[in-house]
Each structure stands twice: as structure tokens, then as C-alpha cells.
Amino acid sequence: MIGVSIVMFWLIVALAAPLLTPYSPTYQDWIAPKQGPSLKHPLGTDQMGRDLWSRLIYGARVVLVVLPLSEDIWLPGGTALWAVGVALVLGIVLGLLSGYLGGWVDEIIMRLLDAMLAMPVILLYLIIISAIGASAVNIVLSMAIVSTPGIARLVRSLTLDIATKEYVLAARVRGESIWRIMFLDILPNARGPIIVNSMLEVGYAVFAMGTLGFLGLGMPPPSPDWGSMIAQGQRHLMTGHLWGVIWPALALASLVVGLNLIADGMREESLRYQ
Predict the structure, then answer these.
(1) C-alpha to C-alpha distance for 217 and 125, rounded to whole angstroms
(2) Average confidence (pLDDT) per 10 residues, the chain, 274 residues
(3) Both 28 and 88 in a single domain?
(4) What angle do CA 214, 36, 51 make, to 5 degrees?
(5) Strand locations in the chain (E)
(6) Do residues 58 and 85 both lie within one domain?
(7) From CA 215, how far away is CA 16, in angstroms rounded?
(8) Is residue 45 in some structural domain?
(9) How far is CA 103 from the centre of its chain?
(10) Shared domain check, 102 and 58
(11) What is the dihedral sign for C-alpha 52, 55, 60, 65?
(12) Number of folded domains in the chain?
């Protein structure tokens, strides 16, 4: 319940962001920079006088609700959700092919994925973002590429187990195509662990967005990116302005913890009914 409450809070404020603050996340109040919480600015302002509450809830909107393609074009579904969705499609297809077909197909796919897993995650992000540039779509692609190997290995292990079941052997005897067997016989029976892992992957994606933003490889400025807010705020810690770091760090940590708690609860429920 705690995890659901945390995630629902951020989802609701992200959906209702335009109604919850009178300020744009990019509006600069030059007469009130680096202010603490007040009636005018409930969480204070950053070094440019931008309202921190506005930037927090619009940052949650980018993570959970919309994918900004440009200043005027948005896709429904947050950046983290799109990244996990793309990774799921790639990982499920590769995992099914590797586990069901085996042989040289399995060897090629697994060796490529092992090579990706052998690289430090941060280094892999740096290589991908440096190569294709920083934008919302490219961040989705980079996070999807990094997440795909883990999902594919999970699906492969599930496929190897389910492929030995009698109903799969019966489907083979009936002469069903490999695509029908993989997607109608194997995949539905592997959905439990995949769903639980997907929730964990969303948490990883949220944390990855924060990491990329902190390193200057996240959403292009002046987008309200939690990681970049922390990076900008930490430069002013020595002047006593703590709010620019505390609020985005708490937002990032709370959302990741909430998603992980939901994943743990789902895993416990799945084990209970096995």
C-alpha cells in the first residue's frame, strides 16, 4: 500500500500539474532567487528564481505522463514508461527467439547481450547519448538499449523451462508455427515474472533519467529534469541554499522506492499463488 500511495501521489500531481501551480516550470522570478519555502513559493526557488514546486511536478509529468518530442508535440506515456515499453518489446522478442530456437541463434543473441552486460551501465549510457545526442527520444532509446539484455535473459530462461511443457510439445505436433507457439503458448505463461521485472525496470529507468540529468546528458534545458535540478542545486550548497537539492532528491528517491515496493508486493503475490 505504501508503494502504491507514493506512485499514485506522483501520478496524480503529474496529471494535474497545470492546475496545481500558477507558475510555468521555466518562469524566472529574478527578484526572488534561491528563496526558501514561502506562501508565494511553497518549496522555494532555485538560483534563477524558478518555482521548485512547479519544476518538481512538471518533472514528474515528463517521467510518468508525457514524452516531449518538441516544445509543441507530446506523446502520451512518460519517458520512463516508453523506455521500458521499447525494452520489453526488444527483450521479449530476443529472449523468445534465443530460448525457443536455441543453437546458433541462441549463441549469437546471448553473446551480443553478454557483451553489453559486461560494460558498466554509466559508460554505456555515455557512449550512446554522446553518439546520438541528448533529447527525449534519444534518452528513451538509450535506456531501452541498456535494459534490453536483462529482460531478454529473463525471457530466455522462462522460455527454456516452458518449452518443455506438454502443451508446447502438443502444439509442435499439431504443426503450429514457431511464432504462434512463442507468442500464444509460451509468452502468456511467462507473463508473471515479466510483469514484476517490468515494474523494477521502470524504477531503474526513473533512476537512470536522474543520473543522466545529473551528468548533463538528460532532458535539454530548460526542461524540468530532476537530475539536472540536483546538479544545478549542488553548486549552491556552500551558499546555504539546500532546497534546490533536497526537493528533487527526495522526489527521485521516493518514486524509485515506491516502484520497488510495488514490484516486491507483486512478486510476493505471484509466489503465493504458485
Answers:
(1) 9
(2) 87 89 81 80 83 89 81 78 93 93 89 88 82 80 90 93 87 86 89 88 90 83 83 75 85 92 80 60
(3) no
(4) 60
(5) 66-68, 74-76
(6) no
(7) 29
(8) yes
(9) 33
(10) no
(11) positive
(12) 2
Q: Which three cell numbers stand for residue 196?
A: 514484476
Task: Choose among 149, 245, 145, 142: nearest CA to 197.
Answer: 149
Residues 89 and 183 in one domain: yes
Cell matching residue 273: 499463488
User: What pLDDT score was predicted for residue 270?
Assistant: 67
Q: Within the chain, how many helices (H) and strands (E) appear?
A: 12, 2
| Nearest CA among 273, 257, 251, 270 for reference residue 55 | 251
- CA 178 to CA 198: how far, in whole Å? 25
Q: How many other C-beta atoms lie within 10 A of the C-beta of residue 158?
A: 21
Residue 85, all three cell numbers? 515499453
Q: Which of 212, 17, 72 is nearest to 130 (CA)?
A: 212
Q: Which domain range does residue 50 map to?
A: 2-64+224-272
In a domain, 192, yes or no: no
Sequence-ordered alpha helix ranges (H) in 65-135: 79-101, 103-118, 121-132
Conformation bin of residue 34: beta by default, left when phi > 0, alpha when psi is -120 to 50:
left
